[in-house]
Write a structure and sequence with these properties.
Layout (H helix, E strand, L loop, with lengths): L1 E2 L20 H15 L5 E4 L3 H14 L3 E3 L5 H6 L1 H20 L15 E5 L1 H13 L4 H4 L14 E9 L2 E10 L5
Parallel strand pairs: 1-4, 2-3, 2-4
Antiparallel strand pairs: 5-6
Length: about 180
Amino acid sequence: LVRHGKAESRKTWQGSEATRPITPLGSAASYALARELACYAPNKILSSPWKRCVETIGFFASDCSIKIEEISELTEDYHEKNPQDTLNVLINTITQLVNCDQNDNYAKTDTNDTTNTTAMCLHRPIIGSFFEYLRKITNPKAHKRILSMRSPYMHTGSAIVLHIINTPKGARIIDIESVIPIVY
């Protein structure tokens, strides 16, 4: 899960929320984050279609020649009106990932095959809703501290990596890593 890079201030931005871009610092962090994300080799990218999310994950997508799937349910506006629909995007993605692992699709390399690693770029309010759900499927108490209960949940331009397995009780997170790129 990726939180978009530092964006232009809401107070000073003259355009719509959907077109508010990342700042030069947000751009630098997004560039650095792309190098960090490459270590996990995501082969699918989901994102809010809003400019700041697409710009943030765009560096990684461009470097890896992966198309960004823009999901309208991941916008702040959609989430505000239909939070369960937004949460269902996460739940369905996790279900697809654990089913892919269960079917042993790791060896497949064709881009049409089911993927097993997904990057998802989000907005702060959505991350809070996602974390609430993720805390429920995280077994080790030590990992729950990474899934903050307080806003802003994650730093702008950072990511968390969820290691998820399928169990008889459903998907469970067995490890979580924080990814905060260093920007000079």
